[in-house]
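Lab notebook page, bench 4
Experiment: in silico fold of construct C2
Operator: M.H.
Input chain length: 123 residues
Purpose: comparison with the prior construct
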Amino acid sequence: MSAVTEVTIVRVDLVEESFKTYRDLRDEDPALYPVMLVLSRPLDDFERSILFKWWQNIEFTEDRMQVLLRIATLEQVRDELGELNGRLASAIAAASEAREAAQAEDERLRALAAEINAALTQQ
């Protein structure tokens, strides 16, 4: 297995929907709101796919270094920061394994196609 660069939460941000004034004016949940997590590096497609499967409360933005927790509070993020970083690390490791397995299968398919094509040219 190749080395995977660790991903951690480096900052939290609020979005417009996070603010109580926004939620009150739209009759939304007064206690829970979205919290943006800014990560230490961009996520690739495999990492985003695993995170989405494992973490139903997550939404991705165009910026691959950001993920939005849809239903949270800043207090929850603060209190669960270690757990959140642990969940990120587990998902990143699983994504690395999935990526390597997919790449190995891609190589097997390429080799098989080349073998079949070589046999066809010898006919």
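Observations: The chain has four helices and four strands. Residues 9-121 form one domain.
Next step: discuss at group meeting.
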